[in-house]
Amino acid sequence: MKGQVRDQVYNQVRDQVENQVWIQVRNQVWIQVRNQVRDQVRNQVWIQVRNQVRSQVEAQVWDQVYNQVWNQVRDQVEENKQ
Known about the structure:
The chain is 98% helix and 0% strand. It has 1 helix and no strands.
């Protein structure tokens, strides 16, 4: 009887410890996976936003430069006509 009680207590404690360890490992793995996915998504979104903004800025700058050069050329042509 005494041995049976001891075995039951031992099995109960072992099961609780295993469950606790499993929960901790599972949570740790989940946190790592979640953080990794979050970082990847954040980096991807950042790259997309950065590229979009860069494209818009480049287009605006190009338009300004083109218009400036075009106006200078046009003014020079007009001056040369007179």
